[in-house]
Every structure is written in C-alpha cells, then in structure tokens.
Design goal:
The complex is a heterodimer of chains A (about 100) and B (about 170). Chain A has about 100 residues and is mainly alpha-helical. Chain A contains three helices and no strands. The radius of gyration of chain A is 17 Å and the shape is elongated. In chain B, helix 1 packs antiparallel against helix 2 and helix 2 packs antiparallel against helix 3. Classes of the chains: A mainly alpha (about 100), B mainly alpha (about 170).
Chain lengths: ~100, ~170
C-alpha cells in the first residue's frame, strides 16, 4: 500500500540530491539542472497532495511552477551565454568580479 | 507485491539513481540525458497518481523543451568535460554536504517522526480529478488572473533572453 509518506520521502531525497548538486558542482549549467531537479521534487509533492486530497489546486500550482521554471531557464541560460562571451568560462568559481 | 508497489518502487529507484548520476557526471551532456531520464520517471509517477495532464505536460515542457534548450546552450558554448569531483575537495563542498544532510534530517523528522495530519486513504478521490476538464475549468474560471499574468511573464522572459544573448553591435 503506497501512502503519502512514500512519495514525500522520494520528494525529500530528490530535493537533497538537487541541493548537493547546487553546492558541490562548479559548472554553472549543472547547477542550473540541479535547480530544475529541486523544482521537480516540489512538483511531485504538490501532485501527491492534490491526488490524496482530491483537490485540483495542487496540480494547478504545478502548472504555474512549470511555466515559471521554463521562463527562468530561458533567462538563466541567456545570462550564462552572455557571461561566457565575456569570460570564456562557465566555472562559477572564476566569476568573482563582485567579490571584495 | 501489487502492481502499484512495483511501479512506485521501480520509478522511484529510477528517479533517484538518475538524479545521483546527473550530479556526478563530468560531461554536461551526460548530465542532461540523466536529468531527462529523471523527468520521465517523474512523469510515470504522476501517472500512478492519476494526474494525466501534468504527466504529459511534464514530458512536453520539461523533457521536450527545457532540456533541449540546455543541450543547445551546451553545444553552443562547446563545453568540454569538467574536472573530476574528487580532485577539488574544498571546505565549501564539505560545508555544503553537511548543510544538505542537516536539511535532510529535518525533513526526516517532519515526514517520519512528528505527529502529522497527512491525508490517509487511497487514491479514489484523486482518480476523480486530474483530468484535463477539471483542471481547465478551475484554470479558466477561478485562476484566470494568474493565467493571464503568466502570459506577460513569458513575454518578459522572451524579451529578456533575446536581449541578453544578443551580440552587441558596437559602432
């Protein structure tokens, strides 16, 4: 019998893997992909609660989260392209002009 | 072993394994492919939760559009392989891993140990909703304003992305 807790465990574990990916990787594109992984784990939580409560609002919020994630991915990748043109690298350790 | 359990554990294992492989690969293209595999596993999980529309939208938008955009950018920038993760063990990584473990322990407490009011029962209520009709009815009546605002958001994102990635024409 699969209960809500099973799905929540999976959501938590996937979220943690995303957090570790954001912190431990230095390639900006892989950091971005880890952020998408975190967003997807939250989407899974929302859909799980929507299914077990019988309310469609959770899936509606997932719809909007996907839209915002798509817009954010487009703009973020444009920023990475503009950054690459300047510094020829996507290594986030080397993008430190604002460091004091 | 019901079909429900087999599907859940199989798809969950596929999701976790592909996520771990995604963050540990050196080649960014391989990372993108593992993330696509994770998205397909998530779409399968949405189907086990009777959320048909969200499952299909997940494959269309995430696996079919966003990941293709990532691949375009990786190939446009012509990125090579990264360094091995174990070559650079800085204190930042250790602190980051410790923080992640801390948050995971918090989540373990919330989900597992604390007295909770999580919904019990089965998916009978969920099976009645989750179709396109119910979602469309709610989206275009009660949540019409956010729907229109997301169209403005997408316009802003398009203009911003085009402007940021444009080659500057210096005189």
């Amino acid at each position: 019998m699969i209960t809500v807790e099973h799905y929540l465990w999976l959501s938590a574990i996937t979220f943690m893997i995303g957090v570790i990916g954001v912190v431990a990787r230095r390639n900006a594109i892989v950091v971005f992909m880890s952020i998408e992984l975190m967003l997807n784990s939250v989407n899974l939580s929302l859909v799980v609660f929507s299914a077990y409560l019988g309310d469609i609002t959770g899936q509606l919020l997932v719809f909007f989260v996907m839209t915002v994630a798509a817009a954010e991915a487009a703009v973020g990748l444009a920023i990475i392209i503009a950054l690459f043109r300047k510094k020829q690298t996507v290594n986030i350790d080397e993008i430190n002009i604002l460091k004091w | 072993m019901t079909l429900e359990s087999i599907l859940f554990y199989g798809l969950a294992a596929m999701s976790v394994v592909s996520a771990i492989l995604m963050i540990t690969r050196r080649n960014p293209v391989t990372s993108v492919l593992f993330l696509i595999m994770n998205f397909f596993a998530l779409a399968g999980l949405y189907l086990t939760l009777q959320a048909q529309f969200i499952a299909v939208i997940q494959i269309f938008v995430y696996a079919g559009a966003i990941m293709v955009l990532f691949l375009f950018v990786i190939m446009l920038l012509n990125l090579g392989d990264d360094q091995k993760l174990t070559e650079v063990i800085s204190y930042k990584k250790i602190v980051g891993a410790a923080l992640a473990v801390g948050v995971l322990l918090e989540l373990i407490y919330i989900i597992g140990l604390a007295p909770s009011g999580l919904p019990a029962g089965n998916l009978d209520r969920g099976a009645a909703i989750g179709t396109v009709e119910v979602l469309g009815t709610k989206l275009f009546t009660q949540y019409l304003f956010p729907f229109e605002i997301t169209s403005i958001l997408l316009l802003v994102a398009i203009v911003g992305a085009v402007l940021l990635a444009k080659k500057k024409l210096d005189d």
